[in-house]
């Protein structure tokens, strides 16, 4: 049975998250509805990451088993037609080996968090960034972020609802960069790891924002990490600034991308 990998972009606003749920709209259910229009039955669409309600994606990856040997470009076009008007788009597609699994074959994942500081309300990016009115210290946030890279017990930065078997994870990088934004500043946090705990990235960013305001010292991030206590975490920031930015595989199933 042919297997296809799909690279997916979506706005998480209005969805209860990636995973299908009873009586609540989800990205997975919308994709499976679209696939059902072109394939017999209702093939499952399995994703690389279970993004929460309000979380977006630039490069979510999913796979689906099809009965028909599609040209990947035609499959992408057909699914995008049936996804309308949902804020979901297939931006690439590829035929992959039967053993490929979007979640378990992934080498690592990168999340992006966008934080904007300015006084005037954000309008064009409403629902797509976390806005705070305070000036933030980039150097201090970078110093705090350095404590979060590496292999650690991340109990402090783990949601109480997290179902992972262990709080120990290896975080490859936590980068913080500053970018111009109209009448303000945008801070982008890139966090890369093979896998994540529930709310781990949002816990990182909420804690680092506190460092940026001067409420915490960078060394307080180290102390919070070593406490291995959820109560030691800074505030968990809202979901609207979070994006599943990319999922990496070796080899890359998408190569040079689809062609018509």
Tell me the CATH architecture of the largest domain: 2-Layer Sandwich
Report the CATH topology name of the largest domain: Alpha-Beta Plaits
Count of the separate structural domains: 2
The largest sheet, given as strand count, sense and whether it forms a barrel, is: 10 strands, mixed
| Shape, principal axes of CA atoms | globular
Radius of gyration: 19 Å
Poorly predicted ranges: none
Alpha-beta content class:
alpha+beta
Q: Would you count the extended β strands for me? A: 10
Q: Give the SSE string.
A: EHEEHEEEHEEEHHE
CATH class descriptor of the largest domain: Alpha Beta
Structure annotation, total helices: 5
What do the pLDDT scores average to? 96
Oligomer designation: single chain
Brief description of this entry?
The protein is an alpha+beta fold and 260 residues long. Helices cover 21% and strands 30% of the residues.
Helices and strands, with pairings:
Layout: E1 3-10, H1 27-36, E2 45-47, E3 56-65, H2 72-83, E4 88-96, E5 108-117, E6 130-132, H3 138-146, E7 150-153, E8 168-181, E9 184-193, H4 200-213, H5 218-227, E10 242-248
Parallel strand pairs: 3-10, 5-6
Antiparallel strand pairs: 1-3, 1-4, 2-3, 5-9, 5-10, 7-8, 8-9
Helix pairs in contact: 1-2, 3-4, 3-5
Structural notes for this entry:
- The chain is an alpha+beta fold.
- It has two domains: 3-105, Pseudouridine synthase I, catalytic domain, N-terminal subdomain (Alpha-Beta Plaits), CATH 3.30.70.580; 108-245, Alpha-Beta Plaits (2-Layer Sandwich), CATH 3.30.70.660.
- The chain contains five helices and ten strands.
- Strands 1, 2, 3, 4, 5, 6, 7, 8, 9 and 10 form a ten-stranded mixed sheet that branches.
- A hairpin with an 8-residue loop joins strand 2 and strand 3.
- Helix 3 crosses helix 4 and helix 3 (138-146) runs parallel beside helix 5 (218-227).
- The longest helix is centred in the last third of the chain and has 14 residues, at 200-213.
- The mean pLDDT is 96.
């Amino acid at each position: 049975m042919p297997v296809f990998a799909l690279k997916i972009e979506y706005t998480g606003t209005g969805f209860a998250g990636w995973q299908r749920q009873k009586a609540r709209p989800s990205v997975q259910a919308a994709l499976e509805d679209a696939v059902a229009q072109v394939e017999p039955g209702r093939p499952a669409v399995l994703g690389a990451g279970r993004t929460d309600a309000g979380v977006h994606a630039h490069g979510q990856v999913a796979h689906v088993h099809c009965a028909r040997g599609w040209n990947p470009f035609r499959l992408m076009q057909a699914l995008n037609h049936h996804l309308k008007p949902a804020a979901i788009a297939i931006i690439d597609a590829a035929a992959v080996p039967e053993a490929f699994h979007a979640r378990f074959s992934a080498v690592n994942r990168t999340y992006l968090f966008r934080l904007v500081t300015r006084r005037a309300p954000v309008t064009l990016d409403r629902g797509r960034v976390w806005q705070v009115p305070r000036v933030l210290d980039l150097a201090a946030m970078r110093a705090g972020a350095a404590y979060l890279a590496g292999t650690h017990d991340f109990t402090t930065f783990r949601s109480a609802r997290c179902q992972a078997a262990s709080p120990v994870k290896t975080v490859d990088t936590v980068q913080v960069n500053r970018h111009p934004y109209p009448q303000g500043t945008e801070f982008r946090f890139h966090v890369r790891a093979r896998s994540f705990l529930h709310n781990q990235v949002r816990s990182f960013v909420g804690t680092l924002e506190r460092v940026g305001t001067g409420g915490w010292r960078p060394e307080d991030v180290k102390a919070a990490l070593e406490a291995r206590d959820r109560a030691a975490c800074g505030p968990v920031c809202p979901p609207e600034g979070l994006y599943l930015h990319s999922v990496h595989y070796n080899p890359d199933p998408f190569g040079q991308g689809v062609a018509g």
